[in-house]
Amino acid sequence: MAATSGVHADSTMEIQIVHSRSGDIITTLGDLHAKSTVGDIKKAFFKEKSKYYPDRQSFRTEPRGKVIKDTETLESLGIKNGGKLYFKDLGPQVGWTTVFLTEYAGPLVIYLAFYTRPALIYGAEAATLPYAKVVNIAAGCWTFHYAKRLLETIFVHRFSHATMPIRNIFKNSLYYWGFAAFVAYFVNHPLYTPPAYGDIQVYGGLAVFALSELGNFSIHLALRSLRPPGLHIHNDTEYEFSDMLL
Question: What is the model's pTM?
């Protein structure tokens, strides 16, 4: 299929970038080709409008159409010389790694603040009272879990998208940080009482925790293998194995 009107596929093209909501023409991009990808268009648009860095851009072929992947070409989309792409501003973005580190660092710091500084939370008398053994174990488990999540974010996870809207970091952090404070307040409270069934319940729960953490880590490693480095797609040949794990 020809990508331009009466010209070869390697001829230069111009396309209009139109605001998806207002319908106004924002700019016209030239020096494009039928094989130019949406990713190329994002870079060209960024040169014209430096406010809109590539991760902040979203393009469609219709004002309310489906978002186009960066790998699509003008040829594959059927866009000819003088055609249009509809632009939507996704707003300020933040990296997924930053979001995850913020989400997981908060619960670690908040819980340990309750555990190590009870006088600040419950009053001066709380600092003189010893913790039950299970409370110390709980603090160790909590620390291990969130330290593991932080290390996985840095060394294991591969994300399908580089960024997300910056507002999400506040929404997600409120959830993680809020429940961390809720759990920490009651587990580390001076009036906390150990489990009714004693060591059997404590060490049984600890064994389940250890197995769960190991299983969780193994799945994260498996999911990592489904996405080759630098790519935003999964390895389809591994879906069946992934489905069994999940």
Answer: 0.79
